[in-house]
């Protein structure tokens, strides 16, 4: 500390004590308020319970708690650095770079009074962690393998239609408990027995578009017929109902559309 005079040391020591007082006051306030980490989730949020809530309902509170914990961790490290700097003043080693033994300029100490390094020797933050959730070890990340049977070659079960797969072996439903009254077999008792596999909405089975969200198309398939017969939409073209093959259905639809366009031009 030979490069620092008594006035400079007193000034830096005062800065360190002020910073220490601020940090200690922060932790005292955290312990004496309802926002402290010792407070339960029920008390801090006012919720009677979090058991029946969707995780998203407490997303904001969870984020803020994690943020506060990160801030406290950083401030705790800063308090340790301040205490270490005060001890170096008592030991007579304050203002000396702990790595090289060179003197730290007063201007730098005035800006960062708790530092123990020169600018060029300050340890850099560690590399950004490449840690990934352990769940990814047993899941196929979309869109690389999303969809039905996406894990069939990996020896894992992660099918997009897992419920339909396990329900095919039966469930606890009975005619007395079923919400459906017009069923003729136990296979029809399921509330989702008519759900199309691999899709969310029924019309997704016969509609599509390209990657640029253009060239929208409607395929004339049995799924489209069932959709129209259920009163969900109107048929875009009349086709021969006797055709059974899907490819022939598509050709019939194209021919029907062409005939419709020809009639319009003739008129």
From TrEMBL:
Q: Map out region (Disordered) in residue numbers.
A: 45-65, 118-267
Coiled coil regions, renumbered to chain = none
Biased composition, class Acidic residues, residue ranges: 185-199
Q: Where is the composition biased (Basic and acidic residues)?
A: 219-238
Extract the InterPro entries matched here: DnaK_N, YteA
What SUPFAM superfamilies has UniProt attached to this entry? DnaK suppressor protein DksA, alpha-hairpin domain
Taxonomic superkingdom: Bacteria
- Per UniProt, the dksA C4-type Zn-finger stretches lie at 97-121
Q: Which NCBIfam families match?
A: bacill_yteA (TIGR02890)
What is this protein's name?
A: Conjugal transfer protein TraR
Whose protein is this, by species? Saccharibacillus brassicae
């Amino acid at each position: 500390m030979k490069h620092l005079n008594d006035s400079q040391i007193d000034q830096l020591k005062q800065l360190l004590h002020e910073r220490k007082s601020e940090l200690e006051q922060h932790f005292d306030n955290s312990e004496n308020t309802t926002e402290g980490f010792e407070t339960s989730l029920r008390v801090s949020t006012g919720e009677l319970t979090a058991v029946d809530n969707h995780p998203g309902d407490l997303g904001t509170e969870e984020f803020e708690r994690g943020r506060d914990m990160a801030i406290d961790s950083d401030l705790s490290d800063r308090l340790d650095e301040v205490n270490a700097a005060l001890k170096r003043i008592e030991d007579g080693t304050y203002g000396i770079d702990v790595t090289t033994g060179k003197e730290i300029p007063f201007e730098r100490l005035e800006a960062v009074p708790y530092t123990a390094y020169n600018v060029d020797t300050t340890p850099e933050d560690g590399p950004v962690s490449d840690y990934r959730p352990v769940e990814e070890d047993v899941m196929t990340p979309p869109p690389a393998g999303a969809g039905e049977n996406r894990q069939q070659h990996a020896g894992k079960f992660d099918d997009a239609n897992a419920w339909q797969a396990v329900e095919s072996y039966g469930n606890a439903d009975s005619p007395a408990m079923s919400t459906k009254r017009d069923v003729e077999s136990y296979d029809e008792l399921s509330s989702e027995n008519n759900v199309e596999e691999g899709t969310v909405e029924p019309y997704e089975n016969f509609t599509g578009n390209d990657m640029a969200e253009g060239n929208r198309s409607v395929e004339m398939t049995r799924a489209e017929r069932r959709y129209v017969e259920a009163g969900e939409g109107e048929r875009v073209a009349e086709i021969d109902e006797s055709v059974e093959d899907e490819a022939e259905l598509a050709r019939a639809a194209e021919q029907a559309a062409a005939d419709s366009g020809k009639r319009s031009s003739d008129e």
